[in-house]
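A student in our group prepared the protein record below, which I am reviewing. This is what I was given:
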Amino acid sequence: MTRPARDHLFEAELLVHYRVVYNFLLRMTGHSSDAADLTQETFARAYLKIDQYEAGTNARAWLFCLARNLFINDYRKRKRRGEQELDERTAFHQRDEVNPMAGFADLRIAGALDRDFSDPILRAMTLLTDRQRAIVLMADLYDFAEKEIAEAMEMPLNTVKSVTRRARIALIKQLSGYAETTFGILNTRNLG
């Protein structure tokens, strides 16, 4: 592919998703500077690997796959370097033991949240694994179909379905008190 053709494809089909990828990574990391770095790296990789992208296909899913892989690799590198003792369940809690919402202040300031999330919802999201959080974000905020999520997460479709169900049940259980108090609704006894 010639450079002008590569540049046109990159701008027309990939670069238009920059803000969505940034917002996704911001929700995954909880920090605007980490999200900005990972977003730049995602698009740099996308440009370098543009020959692997088929024009006219699902650019957003392809970019989310790159972004997710970079997110995972970034945390693995930090763990190897000893910067943080991270695993999927403790990544957000170790940032601030006293205030688990510390990393999410950037989300509100940056205006990255497309919807108005309350603190209890953000707190419940931090309790999900990285994989669960990514899938819920793609499904419920970005309206990805399960097939698109499977493609972006490089997972079998049935695994996406079961992880999505488990993540939603976990969120419902975490938020049951909030929903009952705020809206007077939700019975979680039959969730399994």
User: Anything to note?
Assistant: The mean pLDDT is 78.
